[in-house]
Amino acid sequence: MVIVAIAVLGGMSWLPEIDFSGFKLRKVDLLSQLHSDAYSDVEEAEPEVIKPAKPAFVDSCRAGVECIDDYSTHKKGMEPLYEALNNRNNLGRAVRIAMLGDSYIEGDILSADLRQLLQEHYGGSGVGLVPMMSDIAGFRRSVRHFFDGWNTHTAATQSGYNAQKSILSGVYFTNDGKAYTDLRGQQKYYSRLDTCSQSSVYFISPIDNTITVSINGGEAQTYEVTGSEKMQKITVDGKIGRVRYDVARGGNGVEFFGATMDAASGVVVDNFSLRGCSGTHIAQLQDKMLSEFDQLRHYDLVILMYGLNVANDQQTNYSKYGKQMQESVAHIKRCLPNTGILIVGVGDREQRVDGEMRTMRGIRELMAEQQRVASEQEVAFWNLYVAMGGSGSISKMVNGKPRKANLDYTHINFLGGRDLAELLFDAIDAGFDNYKRRLAYEAE
């Protein structure tokens, strides 16, 4: 069997490169590490993006902080977030951030620490919006999550998924009969998540329905829902350490999107991670669904953190992916007109070449394409690759003690997420300082 496998793989080495919808599949080559030309020099010049001129104070960051490049001239970058933070005491709601990404932030990695830093600095509590059910509930540290009776429909698998029924998360849930979701705060790993002051559940129920809500294990409150094709929400208030939602009826177009543990003020960060996704699915979401959800749960900033599932060592031209991402960004801009957008560039990813770990060929080109998307769509961009240390940075995280990244030299762990969250928080905080300086400058 070993001989047959080697023979088959050896034969596959002679196959030409296969291009599938613009993405080149990896070429099989058993002797790739023996080729002197297997890898281009990692010290090659990084791709450059021509940046539009901006006032000097916009780009001012203290030493050690990688600035956010904001290409927006019409409040499509960071300004909606900074404006909300500046007026947070009079906003009448929490400042909200949606963080969309792939497996890099799965389980609330990075986003949980960013949430904690923002809440400690600007106020707020609670884990934000949580899906009705999750396959990684036991892995996620930021909330204790229990559920039953739900069917998951997600852009990550496509099976049984209809993009026209989904919200920004790319996930929705149906139930055939009774179903429940139970969320419980925790205090072991992160601060400000043990209790919250507000909880909501978001759904569409074309039929009359009954939803009961129990806070802290107490007596259930019953809500009779009148059937409607429009998105609805039920909100409860109090000092909430645990909340449970029971749904009496399903089928007939009933869809649920998530339940929250929120603050009525301060900052809320929602984690919308989808393993295996590249972000291009966003362009397929229905305008009506995004608009209705925006009316019920408005975001001041949407962070797009994709790229790991696009990068490969056989590709250095990512222009087709860039065009697809431009469609996704343009779609968010159209459906969420008062929301800012921040694209986070792909981080360092490495592969073994000649016995050494080196940054994967194509990473810098992909990062440059993401920055080009931000520039052309006039939104904000943050260079994670540079912020984390550039070439070799993921190896340092893998080999450090304690280890902060996985042995795939691609994904960070919870400790690594904390480090990168601090870098992103510093960039946001520096940008907010610049915003306040600009307000003072314009007032003179």
Describe this structure in words.
The protein is of the alpha+beta class and 444 residues long. The protein folds into two domains: 57-124 and 266-444, Rossmann fold (3-Layer(aba) Sandwich), CATH 3.40.50.1110; 129-264, Sandwich (Jelly Rolls), CATH 2.60.120.260. Helices cover 26% and strands 25% of the residues. The protein has nine helices and 21 strands. The chain has helices at residues 2-12, 79-86, 111-122, 287-296, 319-335, 363-377, 384-387, 393-399, 414-443; strands at residues 19-20, 23-24, 69-70, 95-101, 128-130, 144-148, 151-154, 171-174, 179-184, 196-205, 209-215, 221-225, 228-240, 242-247, 255-261, 267-273, 301-305, 340-344, 350-353, 356-359, 380-382. The strands form six sheets. It has a six-stranded mixed beta sheet, sandwiched between helices. Helix 5 links the parallel strand 17 (301-305) and strand 18. The termini are far apart.
